[in-house]
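Human:
Focus on the backbone:
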Amino acid sequence: MKFSMLAIAAAALTAGVNGFAGTQMPAARTFAVRQSTMLKATEVETDKMAALATAANEARGLAMDSIAAAHSGHMGLPLGAAEIGASLYGSQMTYNAKDPQWMNRDRFILSAGHGSMFLYSWLNLAGFDLPMEEVKNFRQHHSMTPGHPEFPNSEHNTPGIECTTGPLGQGVANAVGFAVSEKMAAAKYNTEEHTIFDHHIYALAGDGCFQEGVSAEAAAFAAHEKLDNLIIFYDANEVTLDKMAEYTQSEDVLKRYEAYGWEVYDIDGHDLAVIEETIAAAKASNNGKPKFIKCNTIIGKGMEETEGTNAAHGEAGVPYVDNAKKNIGLPEGEKWFVSEGTRDYFGEVQAKNEATYNEWQATYKAWSEANPDMAKELEDAIADNVMSADDMIAAIPELNAGAEATRVSGYKVIQEISKLVPNYISGSADLHGSTRNYIDGAGNFGAGFDKDYAGKNLYFGIREHAMGSILNGIAYHGIFKASGSTFLVFVDYFRPTVRVAGLAELGRVSWILTHDSIGVGEDGPTHQPVETVSGLRVIPNVDVYRPADAEETVAAFVSSVTRKEGPTALIFSRQNLDQNDAVPAMERRAGALKGAYVAKKEEGDLDTIVLATGSEVQHALKAAEGRAGVRVVSMPCMEAFERQSDEYKEEVLPSSCTKRVAMEAGVSGLWYKYASKVVGVDRFGFSAPGDIVMKELGMSADNLSGVLDSMQ
């Protein structure tokens, strides 16, 4: 139901704050906040409102022209949410278009990434370095305006884009990650004398985002941890792609968010005065509740032929662009029109923002002089300055481990990593006791109990998908290196976020995934991953490390915090593994860092190469005993190995030796790149003690020995 704020106010005064016919209202407390907002709305400056209204229509025009030129895109959101963009970029957000990486800028995330022309239009109007020519090149090859917003990477570098969005719902959870990072940074770096971090996180999302489960997981986490620096706009246009929204949903989203513990607002999403006052009220409210603003909008507003229908979602309105532009007052026949008045207005906005920026710079300078060590740490964190991988490997003491699970080795290593990388944080989806990634003495992040916002350990609850997206959000925010853990088999709950992390080249994020194979044992095939490691390996730009022992685990962790081009999955065992002490610890570390190395060199002429990874390396070493011409290669990370020089790869895997067998307790397919025969597990496991499952499914030195005998 569409309604104006004044109509709501009049009806509420007549019928009481608990609701009135045809409209479901939130509880009295939140409605009282909105009632106050409505009464103030008439006081907002008329000139400013006129300038914002003009800018909103010109942003609509930019979106229409670019989508029409591309014959592709989504017109509904840019037209329907234009007033929200005008208020944010033209008034409420703090940013510096000339320094888009300013650490204390407000962040805006377009969770409904299909509406990307909304974002590109406002970035251009706000003065970011996104030329009109790039706006015109929407969705074209090598343009700065791809179909969905992409975090600056090797393919695109569009200033003002805070994260990659498109998969619906993830942007909401990313925004929660941004809010976590800001709270953590404020707690860690602000002092009584100087406030360095005090910005807000904004996100715009639609019905599709709120139907996706990841947003629900993240919303519950945000409310529980009292992330009151987070403001979400619900573009409530009552439309999804196939049908009107009522066809597939009937819940009251506003009440759902209120039940989570959010402060909720219900407004006319086209009333600029009300939007202005509502955002101002949300920013000023520091009551420990994230803010949820339901903006009742008309999808495709201004295009009479399609507005308010599901046809407005995509490019169906292209034939009506000229008429729509005329209807909203834009000059006939002129494309990509921006008035001089709008440019002048945003020049004033930039001047105001620069004054705020300069004042902050003075504060930062005073803070840096008073806290030089903390300033150096922060600047290193933002620049992602860490010691080299080789130096870090040398700085971590040898573990001298006996037979132990790599998850146990990982617990030892993560303590050292936390010391060497001060901005490293970790978390778990309710499995710290099993995944063993808790950072000792670092405190727990959050609100209440024994938690505070400076803590480095995050408790995500049983919310794997949210955890993955929140970790990405923390990484996008650009200060902390974030890792999170669960059992390997459950990575499929957040696989979409792993894919986006690879695409966005998020070197600041990693995942600690334990209980890595059929060796899990008694929990049975529901918890025994067989396809999962290979499933991660096929995602581009994701390094997958499955170390064979404690020293390889050191290399895996070091790689995860020193690699800047993309994320890393660390795959650890539940069961104890032997240590390959025949190779010195530092040689194992250096070799593992390169992805593969010779774990046992042949005696005399090379006849056969056995490749293995993780828990199967110990079987390969045993099977090779007494076989003079057999070389064993440990390959903890295929991706790292592929980046090595041709000379190194030839040194480890001589092309002259074609008699090769690979062994891994998982599906065999990928190993045929390196070997002509593979001992793998191309079926699901079963419930039994882990050693029995391993033996029955061929993961033993005896079985591998038989295979080697058959190859002679």
